[in-house]
Batch of 2 targets.
Target 1
Amino acid sequence: MSGLARAGALALVLAAASSCAGGDGGDGGEACSISLVASPPAPVRGQFVSVTAMTEVVGTSGARSYTWLVSLAGEPIVFEVISPDDTISFQASEAGVYEVSVSGTVGATVCSSDEISINATVPGAVFEDMVLRVVPRDPLAAPAQDLFIEVPGGAPYDLGAVTLSAGVAVDGVLRGPGGAPLAGYLRAAPLALEPVPLPPVEAFAGADGAFSLRLLGVAHDLLVMPDGGEVAPALLAGASVTSLDGDLALDAGALVTGTVTDASGDPVAGARVSLVAGGAPSTLAVTGADGSFALRARPGGPVAVTVAPEPGSGLPRLELDAGGGAAIATGSEIEIQYAALATRTVSPAVRLSDGATAAPGARVTWIAGPIAGAGQIAIDGAPRAAQGHVRLTAVAGAGGAHPATPLPRSAYHVLVEPGPAAPEGESVRVEEIDLVAGAPASLSLAAAAELTGTLVDDAGAPVAAARVTAAPLGLLAQSTAAGGAAISDPDGRFALPVAPGADYDLRVDAAAAGLGRMALEVGAGGPGQATALGEVALPPVLRLSGEVALPGGGALAGASIELHCLACGADGGPAPVAQAVSDAAGRFVLLAPDPGVSP
Amino acid sequence: MSRDRDTSVALRRAARVARRSAPALSRTCDPAWRLQRSAPVLRLAPALAGIAAAGCLYTGPINDRPRAEIEKLTPGPYHYPRQVLEFTARKSSDREDGGGISCTWSAFTCTTEGGAESCAPLGESVELPPDGVFRPPAIPSHDPVVVQLQVRDRSGAVSRDTMRIEVGNRPPGLQLQVNQGAQAPGTTESYVVTVPIEISLRDLVDPDGDEVSVTWQLADRPAGSDPNQVEWGPVGTDSDTYRLVPDAPGVWRIEVTASDGFEQGTTTVTEQIPVDEDQAPCIALTAPAAPAPGRHVLSREDGPRRFAVLAVTDDLDPYPRPPRDSPYLGAAELSWSLAGPQTGGALVPLAGAGGGDVVIDPAAHAPGDRIELRVEARDRVDRALPCDPSAPTCSIGGDGCLQRVSWEVEIR
């Protein structure tokens, strides 16, 4: 699984200058084409740049004539034609992207035109490493891929032509025991694409077992999950792409049986049992009335086991990690027995934040764990202690009544979330409740807290129409109701209702204002409190443009272009900072964070 | 040659000149006569003819009058204000006597009021050699211009020619530019209902320099339009731009008439504005791809997984929103909801998930948990999705343009 090279991701071709060839202008074998060469190719502001038209002529002759155009940000730039007129010179008096185009004739033959983009950088520009992620609309045209780029600060920058790697087509048929076609799910995760891992490539094999993938030319971990539970899933770790093409035949895997019993030895019915053996999940088994189960798994180890009892059983989820070194084989038996855990039945009244009004539809999630010694799992007779975890959600009934639910006696974090009919201003409350001490008589929602602030740009001007969202961190990350979203008003002000007392990843998307994105971690105050964040300054952005092309040279239209920073995330890690979609010509423009200029 | 003979010849010539004078004068058009009334120098011609006819005082050879002929160098039969015309007298001569002639040019503009025409000088009179080019000042108005040439030989004999130039009128020119906010060129060939459309005058110009008045008319509306729901009028105090807020799809017709007030001085430009219903946004690209024919599997060992909408296409509000200088108006809104064990199985909105992605952490789940993650896209128009709430996908048009997609996720 260890790192193979980034070769696949880096197989993209980055050209500093894009070149677009036109058609030849002549008939009967007469043709000429012009290509432009700039010197210096990457000037610094203030430098003079010369651009020469290199003309290739076939079957024609005559006087050569050129028509030049130089522009910066759409405005024409004065240039000087140097004799002979196949060369021009201009001063890059401002930093930015200079567009130079030329058309010409040789005798009566019209030549193909050419154009280039020349980046004039700011002296002292800071270069920042970033990742450009390209996701084609058709996943079979080219795989999603990353390009590591350096973005200079201080001025717009054009990446030129980005030609995608074609990747490798993987077409095959998934087959089960006896060669029968097998429907299922396939997931290929490219290896070692740090620091911004590419998402896996997925495919679904139909009833005929046929599947198609297009993958980067690097090793992949291929997970195959057959439908139906008759054949064990398989993980082909570090598989070369070429080895994946063609039939993919799986045997049924090892048959593993066992039972789940409670502390009294009584069977536990309806529990979901699953393994992870050697990194590959097993099929999912559900215990019968007698507590027995049977599943299929790939032989080997290490083996992790999870037992998820039915909600309301009063039993925790049992987890046995893969640290024991156990392995499984055909015929392995797994005996799972819960320890004697005292339970307490909870049935609190769930109320609104006023503590009095019933909150029908409110959700209460009980989270506990790990609970040491919650049970014992024996693989082929070798017992190990398993930890217990509880994560159970109950929905309050019509009168705000929590259904009576037995839970292991333990310390809990309890999330109380408003239901769909909750009044505005009701929000999530997090409580710590120790069921060893007793069960709560009531639980209540919290009055929403508020995060307020004013968005400004780097010049201090208010930023309107920006989308501000607060995504909860920590325990509340699993809540569906804790976050908030708002649009900044004309004065740049925003106010986000959020769950109180939690930390948030505050994200700002100011594309509507011609600015970029940013993220920062903030904390919310207590119930009903507003936390003033003051001025939130959006970082300056620069226009980062480019053009994506398919391996054959055709424009890649409608592709997603995402720019990721490597260390600007709320956690100091990578984060997406700009997003665009390529147009019909494959062109894209991103508003990238400006790395700046060193003083 | 004896004096008597000379006298006889001179008399004959004088008589011939007198005979010539009458047709010469009658040849000149009426305005010339009117000009003569206001230009005393022109009265010399009949006076000289009378003296020559009498012959009693004349002792030398009788001088033939020079020939005066105006030649218009500026081509074309029609002329308009602002035009500078050119004339020459090169066909004028004093052939019988030889010798040089001097040519004096004058130009007049003539107006008719109460049936009487009066003329005023147009610039200064100038004296030019016969082959000189006379360029009076540019034609100032639509009134006729009369050009007069007076040719004088060395002996003082004078002939005149006049030419009347009728001045035509050209209608004003104008173009209209239709713009709907910052609508994307090429995205659609029509405009979108309820979104303001601005129609602006472009290149309004009267080639003759006349003052132009402009009238705007909403000439036709689609059958489904309610006049009370249509906003139509000038933008602020700028009558060069009108705003139309169409309330119904169909073809709208705007007529703009520009007139300089003269005959044939009206131009009407008709603009057909096709207006469509706002197109529903289409979720065009997601990661992982959705809808999928099966469940996506999240392994708890793999860590959090991002589910993202990478592209929404729309006529006005795509997602992500391109930079501000793009031709689009806004961005599609995305709303997310989730159903899973943590929601009691009910589909509930994800508060604060208004952006393009949602992250699911499988570590918070048990193997076998199933989650449905749903995203819906909408643009500036509030539309009810015509699908059962439980349907994982939905398309208003019933085609491949989806406004709702879902991911079915199984935790393992």
Target 2
Amino acid sequence: MNEAFDLRMGESHIEVHKFHGGTILLSAAAALILQAFLPAHLPKLAILDLPLLITIYFALSRRNPSTGLLLGTIIGLLQDSLSKTPLGLFGIAKTVIGYLASSIGARLDTEHPAARFALTAVFFVLHQGIVALIQKLLLAQPQPWFTMRLLVTVLVNSVAGVLLYFVLDRLRKS
Amino acid sequence: MVALPSRHRSLFLLAGVVLLQVLLLAVQIKRDSQGRLIRVWTVSAVSPFERGGSWGIGKIRDAWRHYFALSDTARENEALRRENGELKLEVLQLQSKSAEADRLAQLLNFKQSQGKVPMVVARVIGTSADANSAVIYLDQGLRQGIKKNMGVITPEGVVGKVIESFRDTCQVLVLTDPYSGVGAMIAGSRIQSPVNGTGEPLLNMKYVGNDEEVKAGDRVVTSGMDRIFPKDLPVGVISQVKPGASFKQIRVRPSANLERLEEVIVLLTTDPLVIKSPESTAPGDASTVPAASGQTASVPKPAEKQP
């Protein structure tokens, strides 16, 4: 589909956004590369989770749960394969986030920066919670979840997400 | 095939994708003690069914064995009971043979230690038909050289004397018979006095004056004066001493277990003998006393009674 169309949910009309060919693929690849590349030179940037922000953005934009969860799965598994974590750790977390973001995106207007900030914060906390849960239940490596560092990380990523989404909005088909 | 509602399709897809990734994780994760997580899960998932199946099959098998397949059980039970009885009997026989072997070994040792004393080992084959007399029959007689008035002993002490000898058997008057007696003396004080039977388990020692010092626990040995038993064979141990009119009333517990005799030794001579015990070879042994014939005769220590 090359054109934007309206998704009818009751009385409200939610717009489904389309992107130019290869945009999602290139954006995801860039996010993964930057995520692996930047912290090596700028360690402070390790606080960012660019693949998660990309997943949230495109899931919210496409508003299709199936597409959202598959996008989350692919990005998460690629992130796993670029890190030392077992394949599936980020995959599961981003699959769930992709599904939820798509589902919520189909019901809410997510174009306002404040809404994007809040949703990114919620999804980020949820993502970290899922990762911690998998680490505890499957890997037998319990990690602390809700810490001060998480709050800072959430804030930073939410702000970065709002800015990133603004840039990515430029790649939409008009 | 049932078509899924479109609104649920993505939910099923989510569950499937997450499940696949969980399995992917499980294949990779290896627990130190239990191997890969996928194997742990598989075993954990399957084992309850296996346990349940085993339990059910076990119950069915038990029910079959205990309630339906009992056709041969009664016969088998009967055979087992019979076999159990035979085995019990066999055990008793073996225990008896073992005890007999011990006794015979004891007699053989005694006989070998008295190499120069002519003697023969005999088995008790019967007792008197009269309840008031203590008489036993042995399985050896004239053919083995046993004659009247020969002494009968066990390694523990005096048993009695031969009162009649036949071709292959002989009759022995046991010390506890009221008409039986033996020339005896107290081992320590050398006070001499005959000891005779009373028809009871304990013997009497007569003619020990009231002024003599005698106490319970003193050993009584043969004096050799009856010319039946050699000197210093153990007769018994004094168990009770009471003052009497002229003489003390002394009761002696026999050294030999006269109520349970099974094998005995018959001394094949009535001439004076010297009986030695293994303990008598020690120099300065207090139990060694000079014999009347001028030879050294040792007093065998009374052996413990068999239970």
